């Protein structure tokens, strides 16, 4: 007669796995708050610093925080990536995406900009066909269409509510998607290595762009610039730890909490409440993204299961 109860060893093992998963989810939640706070810092200095200068602050702080963190975790391999050219190209696309997003953020509130940015997974899906040779079914294309309808509802092209800044945010989402494709191709490099290369390239590029402005920095700009950069760096580190503790397919849906975080901080700081268009559009974008993640999870399971005999 076999026992129907788990052994203490198995029970403890499952408990530890559950604790790691819960901690990973908590870290993703924390990262969304940190990224929202980072955007608040950018808004506070948008009238005294250019988008390129804010990106410089963000990447400068990112290097200061990420380099010691990466060296401690993976050692000198951070300066010797397996895919150097992919990391360089990824760094260039990342800084371009950051600057474009900040240009859009100068004329948009944080919830609107965040919602548009979350259409990036739709672009990733489209680019994966070209660069990764993936096959995308009709259902995922329909989900992508729903996501774009959500963007159109927020942007409202052809109406008096339309602002050209939303184009910057949308292009930033596309550039971010290309950066994500490069991340998937540089699969043999650690997350820490990519963090360091992205931040260093970001500092180099933005220093070239704003070196004349660096000497014209107020204390107000320095405080919020460094604070925003610190929030950004800590958010990235939270994500690194989270995705080491739990599968990406499990954690990815929780990243959409950033829309709630963006709305919350905007309300607390400026009293901004998203309008009906933003609420409906963001809901469609989230639904599109979650359904795409669901279909990707099903495809992964079928791939791992292999053909039936």
UniProtKB/TrEMBL annotation:
Q: Name one Pfam family in it.
A: EamA
Gene Ontology cellular-component terms for this entry are: membrane
| TM region positions | 21-42, 54-72, 84-103, 115-133, 140-156, 162-182, 194-211, 223-243, 250-270, 276-293
The record's annotation in InterPro entries points to: EamA_dom, EmrE-like
Q: Does the keyword Repeat apply?
A: no
Q: Tell me which UniProt keywords the record has, alphabetically.
A: Membrane, Transmembrane, Transmembrane helix
Outline the extent of the EamA domain: 23-155, 166-288
Looking up PANTHER family in the UniProt record yields: ACYL-MALONYL CONDENSING ENZYME-RELATED, BLR2811 PROTEIN
Name under which the protein is recorded = EamA family transporter
């Amino acid at each position: 007669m076999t026992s129907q109860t788990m052994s203490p060893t198995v029970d403890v093992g499952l408990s530890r796995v559950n604790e790691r998963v819960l901690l990973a989810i908590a870290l993703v939640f924390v990262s969304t708050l940190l990224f929202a706070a980072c955007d608040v810092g950018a808004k506070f200095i948008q009238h005294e610093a250019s988008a390129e200068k804010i990106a410089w602050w963000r990447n400068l702080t990112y290097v200061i925080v990420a380099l010691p963190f990466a060296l401690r975790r993976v050692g000198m391999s951070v300066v010797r990536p397996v895919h150097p050219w992919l990391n360089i190209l990824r760094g260039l696309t990342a800084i371009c995406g950051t600057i474009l997003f900040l240009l859009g953020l100068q004329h948009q509130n944080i919830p609107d900009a965040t919602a548009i940015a979350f259409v990036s997974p739709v672009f990733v899906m489209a680019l994966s066909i070209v660069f990764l040779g993936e096959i995308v079914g009709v259902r995922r294309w329909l989900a992508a269409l729903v996501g774009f309808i959500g963007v159109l509802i927020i942007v409202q092209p052809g109406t008096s509510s339309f602002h050209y800044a939303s184009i910057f945010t949308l292009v930033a989402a596309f550039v971010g998607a290309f950066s994500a494709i490069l991340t998937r191709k540089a699969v043999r490099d650690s997350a820490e290595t990519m963090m360091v290369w992205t931040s260093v390239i970001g500092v180099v590029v933005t220093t070239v762009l704003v070196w004349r402005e660096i000497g014209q920095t107020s204390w107000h700009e320095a405080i919020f610039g460094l604070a925003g950069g610190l929030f950004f760096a800590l958010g990235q580190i939270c994500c690194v730890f989270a995705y080491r503790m739990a599968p990406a397919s499990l954690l990815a849906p929780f990243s959409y909490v950033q829309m709630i975080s963006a709305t919350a901080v905007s309300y607390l700081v400026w009293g901004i409440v998203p309008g009906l268009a933003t609420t409906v559009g963001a809901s469609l974008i989230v639904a599109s993204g979650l359904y795409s993640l669901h279909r990707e999870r099903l495809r992964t399971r079928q791939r791992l299961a292999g053909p039936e005999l």
